[in-house]
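Two proteins, back to back. First:
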Amino acid sequence: MDVAASEFFSEKDKTYDLNFKEENNNGSNKISGDSLKDLYKSFVSEYPIVSIEYPFDQDDWATYAKLTAEIGEQVQIVGDDLLVTNPTRVAKAISDKTCNALLLKVNQIGSVTESIEAVRMSKRARWGVMASHRR
C-alpha cells in the first residue's frame, strides 16, 4: 500500500487530512499521526497487507518508529521520501528503528556509489530493499 502521506500532511497543525481531495473540504477529517498509525493497524488486522510505503510525512520519524515497533514484524514499513536513498538518513532510520525497508531510487541521490551504500546498509540491517525506476 503506497500512501504518499506527505501529500495530505499539514505542516501547520501536524495533522493528516483524510479529506484532502474533496473540493469543499472543511478540515473536519484531520487526524494525528498516532490516529493514522492506528488506522493502518486496523487495515493490517482486517486485510492481507504485507507492505506499507510512505505511511507518514517524510519528517515524521517518531510516528514511523511507533508503527514499525507495533507491526514491523508482520508488515514491511517502507521508507521512501523518509530515506531518499540517502545513506545518512538510512543510518538514522536503522539506529532509531524507524522503518524496515528501503525504496531504492537511484535518481533521488547524488551518485550510484551512495545508492549502493544505502542498499548495503539496508541489507546488513536485514531490511527489505525494493528498486524503483522513473524516467
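And the second protein:
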Amino acid sequence: MKHAVYVVGIGDSGKQSLGEEALQIVAGAEVLIGGERHLACFPESSAEKCPIQNNLKTITEKITGEKRRVVVLASGDPLFYGIAAYLLKQIGATRLQIIPNTSSMQLAFAAVKTAWHDALLVSCHAKPLRPHIQKIRGAQKVGIFTDQENTPAYIASQLLEAGISDFRAFVCENLGGKEEHIIEADLAALPGQSFAALNVLILIKQERPLEVLNEGSPWRASFGIPDQKFHQRQPLKGLITKCEVRVISLSKMQIRPGDIVWDIGAGSGSVSIEAALLGAKVWAIEKNSGDVDIIQKNIMQFGAKNITTIHGLAPEALLDLPDPDAVFIGGSAGKMQEIIQLCRTRLKDAGRLIINVATIENLAEMNAQLQGQAETTLVQISRSRPILNLTRFEALNPVFIISWEKK
C-alpha cells in the first residue's frame, strides 16, 4: 500500500520554522526530497535523500512508484508558486498532504509594512520577466520572486530600459533568518548591485507631484497639440485622433489635476498625452505592441511621465486599474458592449465616458446601450489646403463624439 506523500513548507530559518506536526512528519520520512539547502537542515535523518535540481520529471516518477513514506520539503507555502501545484497535476490530490509554512512573500510585505492583498505578485524563479513588464508598469505594488538569473539588479535594469522608473524598491534578503536584511532604494539604484541569493523584491509606486512629473515639457501649458508633432504608425499616419476632435473630446472629459483617466484603444497616445499634460494620471490601454512602442516614444517626447501604458485588450486589461474619473474610448476591437458595461460600473460618481465613433451604425448601437442618456456631437472639420496659387478646404472624416455622465 502506498503511503500519503507529504509536502512540507519550510522557512528560511530551516528546522526552527517548523511546528511540532511538521517535525514529526519529517522525522517519519523514509524518502526525503527537497532542495539541497532544505535537505541540509536535517543531517540526522536516516531517510534516503533526493535533491531537487533540474529533475522534476525523475522526482515525480520516483514519488509515483514509491511505497515508502515520502516527504517533500518546499519553500514557504508549497502552493504559492511552489512545487505542490506541480505535484497536484502530476500525482493528483488523493495521495498529497500539504503542510504550508509562511510564504517569503508574506514575510517581505510584512517587513516593509505594506498590505499585499492588492499587489501584483510575480514569479521570476526560472521564468522570464518580459511577459510581466506591462503588468508591472500599471501596478501600484509588486512582489517578485527572484532567482540567480533574474536578480533584483537585472529586473531593475530591464524595467528601467522599458521606461519604468517610478518605483521605490525593497530587496528583502534572508527573510525569517538570522541574517535578514532589508535594502530600500530607488529602482534606478539597483542595477550593478549584488544581493544575497535568497531574496524577494518588493516595488512600491511613488506618487510624485504632477508639476515634477511633467517638468521640462515644452507642451505643459498648451492644448491641442498639432497632429504632426506626434510619433505615428507608418505608413498609416492617419490613425490618430485629429487635433480638433481631440480638443472637443478632452473638453467633454472635464479633466482636473489628479483625475484618473482611462484611454482605451490609445493608438498613438495623443489623447493620453494631452490628458496627462492637463494633470491627470492616465492609463493608456492598447492591444497592438507596435502602437505601445509609439506611445512610449510620445511619452518621452512630451515629458508626460504620469502615463502608464498597458499592452492588453479591454475589458480584461481594465480589471486591475484604479476606478476612473473619466474614460475615453477610441477603439474597442469588437468588444464595445462589454467595455461600456464595465466602464459604467467602474466610473466614479459624476465620472465622464467619452466615445468617438465614425459610423451611424455604431452611433445607433452606442445610443441604445446608453439608453438614450448620452449627448452626441457631430464634428465635421475642414482644413485649408493650397492648390496652385489658391486655397481650398479639405474635409476630415466626420466623427460622432458621444458623452455620458454617471449620475
